[in-house]
Write a structure and sequence with these properties.
This protein starts with 6 loop residues before the first helix and ends in an 8-residue tail after the last helix. Helices cover 51% and strands 11% of the residues. Among the domains are: 7-98, Arginyl tRNA synthetase N-terminal domain (Gyrase A, domain 2), CATH 3.30.1360.70; 177-262, no CATH class; 270-378, 3-Layer(aba) Sandwich (Rossmann fold), CATH 3.40.50. The chain has helices at 7-22, 48-58, 66-75, 100-113, 142-160, 177-188, 203-216, 218-232, 236-260, 269-272, 276-285, 318-331, 347-359, 399-424, 433-454, 465-468, 476-490, 497-503, 511-521, 530-553, and strands at 34-36, 44-46, 83-89, 93-98, 126-130, 164-169, 265-266, 289-292, 295-298, 307-310, 337-343, 372-378, 381-382, 461-462. The structure holds arginine. Pfam families: Arg_tRNA_synt_N, tRNA-synt_1d.
Length: 561
Amino acid sequence: EEHVENMKRQLANLFYASLRAAFPNEPDDIEPLVAASTTKFGDYQCNNALGLFTKFKRNGTHYANVHAVGQDIMINLPPSEMIESCSIGGPGFVNVKLSNDWIAKSIQKMLVDGIETWAPRLPVKRVVVDFSSPNIAKEMHVGHLRSTIIGDSIARMLEFSNVEVLRRNHVGDWGTQFGMLIEYLFEQFPNVEDVNETAISDLQAFYKESKKIFDTDVAFKERAQKAVVRLQGGESKYRHAWTQICEISRKEFDKIYECLGVHLEEMGESFYNPYIPKVIEALSNQGLIEVNEDAHVIFIEGFKIPLIVVKKDGGYNYASTDLAALWYRLNEEKADWIIYVTDVGQQQHFDMVFSAAKRAGWLPDNDGTYPKASHVGFGLVLGEDGKRFRTRSSEVVRLVDLLDEAKVRMLEEARVKQKDRLKKGIIAIHWTEEELEQIAEIVGYAAVKYADLKNNRLTNYTFSFKQMLKNKGNTAVALLYAYARICSIIEKPERNIQELKTTGSLVLDHVDECMLGLHLMRFSEVSGSAEETSRLLLCEATVTVMRKCFHLLGIVPRDKI
Ligand code: ARG
């Protein structure tokens, strides 16, 4: 089915025609400034008049005031089914009131053709989303959880727009810490056969112990450094130990991804390691690399410190790997857009890597063109005490426990509610213990995801089970209940909603219906008796849009909860 432009786009096209007709002497790349209305006089507004008036005034214009400019924009609008009426507001705004008939028709058409026709169109074919990306043997913390949730949602939105998404887990699986880990491993288990999952089940504790010795015992430190060299030289005993350590971490990470329903493809730092020398050499041949205090660096305009690409000791680092990975993604994977999801603390690192790539000519200077690289940063997760999110024992929160707690709290509440209903004789579905658990899991995990996604991405946010599990207000719980309630209206057996989509007719009468209709239509902008029949269709449209929204957020709704 054909693609439908979102309302803002459609209006922008109309206003473009009117601006061209009203001001033929203006350059033809004049951009219509259309936005959702901020006043009650319309649903959308066009804001070009003020800028044009100021410009005309400079050039000695015949316009008496900004209102007259707005008037000219308004009268030149081509006739359109979508517009009910227009008016001029304050500083020449053209207010547009949309036609409810048109909205109703558009929604019904979506019901027949499918919500895919509302998917935004994007000028890219293949995108790498680099997200989650925890580090082997270190803890996967709430920051990685945020990256996982935000990155997954970005990937889902791109996929909805038919973009091929390479979901990359850039796991920290390489570097000097492995020398220390492997050396410690060999000392703990002189017999290689003893090295298995159960032997080093608590990899984080294992990491801490080895780090302690590394920091205090000079001889151990030297042995650890030699171990890195042997690992990097590909010696099989060392490779084997490394593989095993990675495998144990991977199993832990996978538990989280499984809970969250997130799919990722692991391509860790080690994958790009063989490409580093070649990439550094190319950059060096271009004259980008300089020697600075014995390290090899790239100086970047606007930054006081340079980007170190080869350390003093000749080793590579986080930046060398990221340069090689960016090169690989652009040249081997032919991605049009590469998106990195990490906390805002890494902003400068990515700014520098991207600038280096621009200097090397890998990326165009202009950020508006492709291929392009973007850093999607996010703020910290705070505890209710306003400090970094920790458990009571001030240990880092284990993510599995955190998700589990959301589920357990939901389950307790659901049990109490069910008992209460029984006692009061309220007729409702009686859930089995198994069903209750299923529901609690869906709602609990959804609550964690939604609480994370609804906040401003860049500011820190406070993690609160109590807030996120509320069944009223802007929470996943409230939305999932609303969704199930609407489903129950539609799903009466005597109502054949599939047939109604074509035989029934959707009409928007009541102000609340009009409001809901407008909201549903705006979905595609942000990513993007007869009466009873109409209500049912409106319900169906609502659940259709909600279902897609949930999907984009990585939430699985249930028809009954
Ligand atoms: N492993 C890093 C961390 O835990 C995140 C990696 C992000 N991706 C990248 N290409 N640098 O902070």
